[in-house]
Specification:
This protein is elongated. Helix content is 35%, strand content 20%. The protein has 414 residues and is an alpha/beta fold.
């Protein structure tokens, strides 16, 4: 069905489409397939049953679906759909961006789709407010920018949120986690260490965090605070909180900082911030310093070593001085898992760092494990990570010597 719709879209008759729109608007009819077929007949076109059904599906897709993008969004391998021009529709299937044969009739069709999707998400998108960042009812993340801010054509970015989170075993099979690395991550969760998943845009931070939260014991209560509800952990006790923008009168704004404060009153066993990006960092660090062990979240950073500086910038903007921020950070956070995308577009955990304070009192990260095709390879911070795991009741030697290369630090345990 998707392929037929995409093919029909290329040869759409703009006049026919406009006529159907007018008929539906004047009649007040819902754009169901039957109503679209009726509207087609009202245009006086002589079409056979098969042609009517095909055109009805195409027009229904244009009017209530995602138009030519429907088959791409329905593809389970697609994570992102990006439109930069009527004939420039890209997808990411986990191996980098690919140009697709899908196209729109013109720039106006891209603009109409962007505005309709924004309306479905309950947001405004027009010349007065030329961009939108929202979540569609099915969970898809929408970002759109209209001209003249976007030069030439509306730009549309759709991030697909799958209904089921990947399991840790699936991430090992996909190469995101190296062989044996799942033992390290399971131990991390079992030890209730607080951690952040860092990386750039599209490196798989949310995917990894969802998988890790699925390892949390079924008796624990997970409270999620997110700008856009993207985390989908496979866990029986999850409370999900999502921010809300102000309405057109400027009222009703709910920030991530608000959500973190409320989450602390909801008896969380694991407090999770989908993305640490503002003043909520102050409340998160305070929470992790007052008995809320095992908290976690994601943060944008170019490298694990950049995470303390990133958090310092966020804390300073929120009014927390540098010394206080680093004191809280040292006591609150234990581990950073950093994700990258290689030149082929594959996502993987590049490094695992632990945190320590230098003689000046500032927090820095120390490499503990680095990516290896056969296994994680230990770095100088491995002894510190091992102590953290052991100190929390997890015997690091249970991770298995085969996790590490012969002759590395891990082999000297045995």
């Amino acid at each position: 069905m998707g392929g037929a719709a995409a093919g029909a879209s290329a040869g759409a008759d703009p006049g026919l489409l406009d006529g159907v729109r007018r008929w539906l608007a004047e009649s007040g009819a819902e754009p169901t397939p039957a109503r679209v077929a009726q509207a087609l007949r009202e245009q006086g076109r002589v079409l056979g049953d098969a042609e009517i059904l095909g055109a009805a599906e195409q027009l229904r897709s244009e009017l209530v679906g995602s138009g030519p993008l429907e088959p791409l969004l329905a593809d389970p391998s697609v994570t992102d759909v990006l439109v930069s021009a009527p004939d420039r529709v890209w997808v990411d299937r986990g191996g980098g961006l690919e140009l697709t044969p899908v196209s729109f009739p013109d720039a106006g069709a891209v603009r109409r789709l962007a505005q309709r999707l924004a309306a479905v998400a309950g947001r405004r998108l027009d010349d007065a407010r030329p961009w939108v960042d929202a979540r569609l009812p099915d969970g898809t993340r929408l970002h759109a920018v209209l001209p003249p801010v976007a030069v030439g054509c509306a730009c549309l970015s759709l991030r697909v949120v799958r209904p089921r989170a990947f399991t840790l075993d699936e991430l090992v099979a996909a190469g995101t986690v190296p062989p044996g690395g799942d033992r390290v991550l399971r131990a991390l969760l079992g030890a209730r260490l607080s951690f952040l998943v860092s990386g750039g845009t599209g490196t798989g931070k949310t995917t990894l965090l969802s998988a890790l939260l699925g390892l949390v014991g079924p008796g624990e209560r997970i409270v999620l605070a997110e700008d856009s509800a993207e985390l989908r952990p496979d866990h029986p006790h999850v409370v999900r909180l999502e921010t809300r923008p102000a309405n057109q009168e400027g009222a009703g704004l709910v920030t991530l900082e608000d959500l973190v404060r409320q989450a602390l009153r909801m008896r969380p066993d694991r407090l999770v911030v989908g993305e640490v990006r503002g003043p909520e960092v102050v409340h998160l660090l305070a929470a992790l310093n007052t008995g809320h062990e095992g908290g976690c979240g994601t943060v944008h950073a170019n490298a694990a070593a950049d995470v303390p500086a990133r958090l310092e910038a966020l804390g300073t903007a929120a009014g927390l001085d540098r010394a206080a921020l680093h004191s809280q950070l040292a006591a609150a956070l234990s581990v950073v898992l950093h994700l990258v995308r290689d030149r082929a577009g594959r996502r993987r955990i590049a490094e695992v760092h632990v945190l320590e304070r230098d003689p000046s009192g500032l927090v820095r990260t120390v490499p503990a494990l680095r990516w290896g095709a056969a296994a994680f390879a230990p770095e100088r911070g491995w002894e510190r990570l091992r102590e953290l795991l052991r100190g929390e009741g997890v015997d690091a030697r249970a991770l298995g010597r085969e996790t590490y290369r012969k002759g590395d630090v891990g082999d000297r345990d045995g």
